[in-house]
Amino acid sequence: ENKRPPGDDALTIAGGVPRRVEIAPHAGVRSDEAQAMAAYRAVLEVAKDAPQRPEVMRRLADLEMDLADRKAADGGATPDYKAAVAQYEQVLREHPNAPGNDRVLYQIARAQEQGGDLDAALRTLSRIAKDYPDTMHRDEVHFRRGELLFATRDYAGAGEAYATVLRSTEVSPFTERALYMRGWSLFKQGRLEEGLEPFFKVLDLKLGSRPSPGPDPLAHLTRADRELLEDTHRVMSLALASLQGPASIGKYVTSQDPADVRRGYEHRVYVELAELYLKQDRPKDAADTLAFYARLRPLATPAPELLARVIEIHETKGFPTLALDAKRDFVVRYGRTSEFRQANAEGWAAAQPRV
To answer: Which pTM does this prediction carry?
Structure first.
């Protein structure tokens, strides 16, 4: 006789009647900042000497800061950053030597800046830089000091703040922007030659990587990167035009190695300077700038393109004799027996329709 153990004839999951089980959605844990803040204040009332008191005070200040940030983001009620500042300052008064006070000051500076009190924010950032030189927020502190000093037209102070960021041994999220603003700070002081070096370093970062394949070598750059690149070229061209024009560029591209980062993009510097001259109705200077590059780098791939642009400028601006001279020069440089053909077969082939 085949006997089953007791209960073995019960319905199984597979063999039983399907049942529908309704599970009500969970409402989640409700975050009530007001309630949390009240709880922290209650703790502070009774924990006068507790070792956790500084941390509780910081958390209460952080909640005040978060509340103000959210109001600012929503665009509704006017955010009250003063409450956060007051709470953080209380932490410093009661616990002046507590670990992490550099972060407290950092938050005070941010609240002051967000609240529109830029002078107070600058004083707080300067205090952090003096009292906590090794803070984890070091680069941002000096960068924000630079931004505030630049806004008040203290270009020398701003330049030094940006330079402090750049003296860091590690590349930070502020390095690129600090280079750009360091260049601007020097430009505003009339220190044009010094200012060009940080601008060239911005180009090193943006144009030194492998270009995108296809007709647009900058396709890999984001919109923000392209805008930064355009602005950098613009101010560089203004500085070069106030110096010796194309003759001032070579100082910053000293390598004789064609594979050098700057050798790879230097023709763009000449092109941008020429475009500035054209906007200033100085076509002769524009053509001379492009021809300068063609003479300087006669075997470089971009040389025929820039010399062809010289011909176009002379033709469109009504200088037929200069255009004819440029055409003769073009044929000599890129003709069948030219040195360029032997040194740069690909570039020579691209130049042949114009020849």
So the answer is: 0.82
Closest CA to 180 of 208, 153, 159, 157: 159
Closest by Cα among 246, 296, 251, 241 to 270: 246
Quote the tokens at residue 254: 């000293």
What pLDDT does 4 receive?
46
For 9, list phi and psi in degrees, rounded to 5.
Answer: -90, 10
pLDDT of 262-289, one tens digit each?
999 999 999 999 999 999 999 999 999 9
- Residue 258 CB neighbours (<10 A): 11
Neighbours of 28 (CB within 10 A): 6
Exposure on the CB side of residue 210, measured as CA atoms within 13 A: 3
- Max distance between CA atoms of the chain, in angstroms, equals 119
Q: Determine the Cα–Cα distance for residues 213 and 156; give it in Å rounded to an integer.
A: 42
- Across the range 221-242, mean pLDDT stands at 96
| Range from 41-45, 137-141, 282-286 carrying the lowest mean pLDDT | 41-45
Structure tokens at 103: 């972060």
- Cα–Cα distance measured from residue 147 to residue 330, given in angstroms and rounded to the nearest whole number: 48
DSSP 247: G
Write the CA distances from 176 to 106, 153, 192, 355, integer angstroms: 22, 21, 19, 42
Q: Cα–Cα distance between 108 and 83 in angstroms, integer?
A: 11
CA distances, 298 to each of 185, 256, 294, 349 (Å): 35, 13, 5, 15
Contacts of 304 (CB under 8 A, 6+ apart): 294, 330, 333, 334, 340, 347, 350, 351, 354
Residue that is written with structure tokens 């790879």 in the block = 264
Chain length of the chain: 355
Question: CA 116, CA 110: separation in Å to the nearest integer?
Answer: 10
Q: How confident is the model at residue 74 (pLDDT cuts 50, 70, 90)?
A: confident
Residue 3 pLDDT exceeds 50: no
SS3 state at 44: helix
How far is 196 from 236, CA to CA, in rounded Å? 6
